[in-house]
């Protein structure tokens, strides 16, 4: 029997494996305020289900918390926080931004969490969630970031460079802590957010700058978030796995696998079968994912984060269907 490291490497290489890897992840909207609490619940979740990798899932608020962003949990089933006022409200503040220290505040707290989970994960690879620089910009300045990017691109670039510098340093520290890689989420590579020309100017170069810092990792996952995806613009990113909501947004797993170089992860509708369907519904989606890919180069996963109310029977159905 292959261990998880070798199973995933074989899957990335699209080699036949004795079973299909499986991983699900969720938010922890109360515990994620503390490194120790988030590490504890993440490891407890892993001990219950024994996934083939662990995704550390902090609140999106942490990317701008050290600049003053706040958030409160009001029961969102996905685990998202309701964000407070954006800390950057003027172009002058934006241009005056300096790179944040990864040795203090929320960034240091999350690196401490990485250390704790890596230490407690035994042979299970650990990934830290990283949001792309355009998402960080929106957390800092809200819709103003889009306006400044379009009306004052040179000034926007100067502030944007500080975001890229901060997160390159953070990603490098994550890999140095023993993480297998990052789970890199872009919510901007879609036609509802921007044009292809905009993404090629702002999204792709900043994404690649962070992925370059993650290069020493062996299990970097790209998550392409949202609908109407610019899938072909990111399909060649230097990652080992690509995850997206194939059930709702497309492309299909079969088509996506033809476009990327490594493995694909998905197949389960998180707001459909996983949350409100039967165990048989979940097993049917896993079987379909295996059929589309031939069970090679495929990781059973949801298209995004597992809803907090998803029943345990459905989580276990996904695992047993993957492992046979």
CATH arch. level architecture: Alpha-Beta Barrel
DSSP E strands, number: 9
Strand content: 5-15%
Specify the structural class: alpha/beta
Number of domains: 1
Contiguous low-pLDDT stretches (5 residues minimum) are none
How far the N terminus sits from the C terminus, by CA atoms, comes to 14 Å
Annotated CATH topology? TIM Barrel
Largest sheet: 7 strands, parallel
Task: Indicate the percent of residues in helices.
Answer: 40-55%
What is the class in the CATH system?
Answer: Alpha Beta
Query: Which strands sit side by side, in order, in the main sheet?
Result: 1-4-5-6-7-8-9
> What is the 3D form?
globular
Query: What value does the average pLDDT take?
Result: 97
- How are helices and strands ordered from N to C? HHEEEHHEHHHEHEHEHEHHEH
Estimated radius of gyration: 19 Å
Would you kindly provide a written description of the structure presented here, covering whatever features stand out?
The protein has 324 residues and is of the alpha/beta class. It has a single domain, classed as Alpha-Beta Barrel (TIM Barrel). The protein is 45% helix and 12% strand. The chain has 13 helices and nine strands. A seven-stranded parallel β-sheet has the order 1-4-5-6-7-8-9. Strands 2-3 form a two-stranded antiparallel sheet. The model has no long low-confidence stretch (mean pLDDT 97).
Key traits:
single chain, 324 residues, alpha/beta, TIM Barrel, seven-stranded parallel β-sheet, two-stranded antiparallel ribbon, 9 strands
